[in-house]
Design goal:
It contains 7 helices and 27 strands. It is about 20% helix and about 35% strand. It is an alpha/beta fold and about 400 residues long. The chain folds into 3 domains: about 190 residues, FAD/NAD(P)-binding domain, CATH 3.50.50; about 130 residues, FAD/NAD(P)-binding domain, CATH 3.50.50; about 90 residues, Immunoglobulin-like, CATH 2.60.40. Strands 1, 2, 5, 6, 7, 8 and 19 form a 7-stranded mixed β-sheet that branches. A 5-stranded parallel β-sheet has the order 10-17-11-12-13.
Length: about 400
Amino acid sequence: MRDVVIIGGGVAGLSAAVSCYDSGARDILIIERDSSLGGILRQCIHNGFGLHTFSQELTGPEFAERFITEVSKRSIDYVLDSMVIDISPHRVVYVNGKEGVITVDSQAIILAMGCRERPRGALNIPGYRPAGIFSAGTAQRLMNIDGYSVGKDVVILGSGDIGLIMARRLTLEGAKVHAVAEILPYSGGLKRNIVQCLDDYGIPLYLSHTVVDIAGKRRVEGVTIARVDENRKPIKGTEIHFCCDTLLLSVGLLPENELSSKAGIVLSSATGGPAVDDRLSTSADGIFAAGNVLHVHDLADYVVEEAAEAGRNAADYISGCHGEIKKARIKAGYGVRYTVPQLIRCDRTSPVTIRFRVSSVFHNASIVVLSDGKEIQRKRKRIMAPGEMESLKFDGISLSSELEIRIEVEQ
């Protein structure tokens, strides 16, 4: 029996493994479905990683390599080309690998499977299904790992960070990026990426616009976008047509949680990931979650910070530091889409980091923490946007299971 099994060999899984080992657990196994460790960061060759973690600006592969090195130093076991296909309520992991299907018993499990891109099929865009339509992540892998060019004249739908970064990447490779269209009235990406990837290269961002038609049968020949109203319905007469050979879709990320569902873990309807308490423990005893499988982060530095906490808590769990503890619920109030965690143990006295996203753009507003309607904490912010994750340190107070903690925006 393994002390801890970690599902996913990206930076979340690697960080969790290192932290778990340093907290006393020794028999750790990382299971990765790809042929190498590092996860999605292997294809993220741009810089901007590691500023919070290492006080250095690194590329994605460099950032991941730091954690791969730490795993190797500790001789933590890992298997590659192995897919976890099921988890039992008793923490038995079923793995389909080179040797066929095997089972691995564990005392604790950390879910670190990351996230996936939202598919085009969910968008109902009119037109045929010609060649030249890619998700932004797929295009990134084809260019940065496989060495292929995906197109010369490009339109991008969605202003998520991957789409913004690919707008710059394509431009640097000699392609013409005609436009980035975003159906919402604000960008879904970091402000720095809007400036560095669009503004610096003269690429226009069309807010409150979406794709209404794709021309071409064998290959994309053109894309038409149009302005949308407050109900996100296209407005006739606002169409703009671009002759292009490629359409990239950067329309959101979804936590990878089929395994979590099969294990009977309660999922949050707001994040799509497991609902967790302040120890990052899911509703299934002994199963923890961290990183983009829990909720989609904007910075990899926050992923590794969260995963390290999950690793420490998993190590504490297998040492016997657990039991039935009553928990208070955290609720998202006005202007807040979700919070992570969603529960706080009533015996907690030390501060806990609560991460959340706002539902719209707010200027000169305050984040207010309420306990049964009484204000207990306040934080002023000059600007808040949905594309950038917010956080606050929630100070430990006397809690009861009947208590409701609410976090909301006050303008």
